[in-house]
Design a protein that fits this description.
Largest sheet: 2 strands, parallel
Distance between the termini: 14 Å
Number of strands: 2
Shape: globular
Number of domains: 1
Radius of gyration: 15 Å
Mean pLDDT: 94
Helix content: 55-70%
Strand content: under 5%
């Protein structure tokens, strides 16, 4: 479901900003996921210290992937079970841009992050309307 939040935001960028709620939901998700670290001045993803940093990084990634595609040397790492170890933003952006080929590198280590699945979003208090939209986005993204 984490991918669906990011996919929606990248789709919003692709469609010229026609879905402003996508950024609100994206910011909510990042705040729930990483806000405690940022509040303590701990950078996430090496350099991001704020929600604005995340949004700016998304815009930069989108512009880069729209212009140059998915860089072959930026393979997405997965664990032995096929779970993402990193690269969810790149995968979601590629899906939004309908990039078909995503390089993958299988690692031996297991995923460290909690499953950002339906239960996580419910537990964190996502509003019902946003949950409904998240489910619809997940289904659209999978198709």
């Amino acid at each position: 479901m984490d991918l669906a939040v990011k996919w929606r935001f990248f789709r919003n960028l692709l469609l010229g900003g026609s879905d402003p709620d996508s950024e609100r939901v994206y910011r909510w998700h990042i705040e729930k996921r990483s806000g405690h670290r940022m509040a303590n001045g701990i950078a996430t993803d090496r350099w991001k210290l704020s929600l604005d940093d995340y949004v700016m990084a998304c815009r930069m990634l989108f512009d880069s992937m729209q212009s140059f595609g998915f860089r072959p040397k930026a393979a997405v790492q997965i664990d032995p079970d096929g779970e993402l170890l990193g690269g969810a933003h790149r995968v979601a952006c590629a899906l939004a841009l309908e990039i078909k080929d995503i390089p993958v590198l299988q690692e031996t280590r297991k995923v460290w992050a909690p499953p950002w699945d339906w239960g996580w979003f419910v537990e964190k208090g996502m509003m019902f309307d946003d949950l409904e939209r998240l489910y619809a986005d997940w289904e659209s993204m999978k198709a």
